[in-house]
Amino acid sequence: MNDKGVSAANRLDGKAAIVTGGGMGMGAATARIMAGYGASVLVADRDLAAAQNTVAAIVAAGGVASAVACDVGEEDQVAAMVATCVATYGRLDCAVNNAAIAPDLLPIHEADMAVWDRVIHIDLRSVMLCMKHEIRQMLAQGDRPDRATYSVVNIGSVSSVRPQPGNSAYVAAKHGVIGLTKTGSIEYAPKGIRVNAVMPGAIDTPMLRGALADTGFTEADFAPALSLFGRFGRPEEVAEASAWLCSDASSYVTGHALAVEAGYLTR
């Protein structure tokens, strides 16, 4: 496991966590890293086999995890996901709402509204649904005995703050994720629940590789414009940020959108 040299405050021992979209990419990396820091992780994904693969990797490394099939755009499935976490681990202490689908790649005047609605459904509505049911469970549990805070982390994007042409639905959804995050932070800070966001840049995931394949370009073509380091980020680099926001090391952080984008937003 990847816990060597980690301070006690950064550990997640005794915490039960949900990671959505945990079957691949950033979600899978987040589930693995959080389990490595001691959390018991419910890996949720629409593709149950993918979630089970993540769980198998965690268990093989000595961690604790289980899988659940969940379409996070459907409220009954989200409610069942949270109930499964509680039934399996007895509680819910932190959650990373990561599930998302790719941008729409059409200018506004050519938008396919069925595609547009689907992106909003998965990339924004799902975050609202997850927050609703995760926070409801945290409130029902009451204050943590150790006075530590509960934590919800929503995965936004650099598109949460910098519009990208041709991606109207994705940009609108990811802007909305930051709005939900800030609203939630205000509403639930008095209840001991922190709500933050992570905004990844160009991260080497199946979603990004699929987009590259559609264009015919390579990492070498795009990375210098998207990163001051001239490379794509690794899913683990985003996962570490999410794990920190779930840990007690970030106990004074709420309502924050943490950019993990190798300086892209400084340009």
UniProtKB/TrEMBL annotation:
Keyword Oxidoreductase assigned: yes
Swiss-Prot/TrEMBL keywords: Oxidoreductase
Pfam families: adh_short_C2
Family designation: Belongs to the short-chain dehydrogenases/reductases (SDR) family.
Protein name: SDR family oxidoreductase
Organism for this UniProt entry: Novosphingobium ovatum
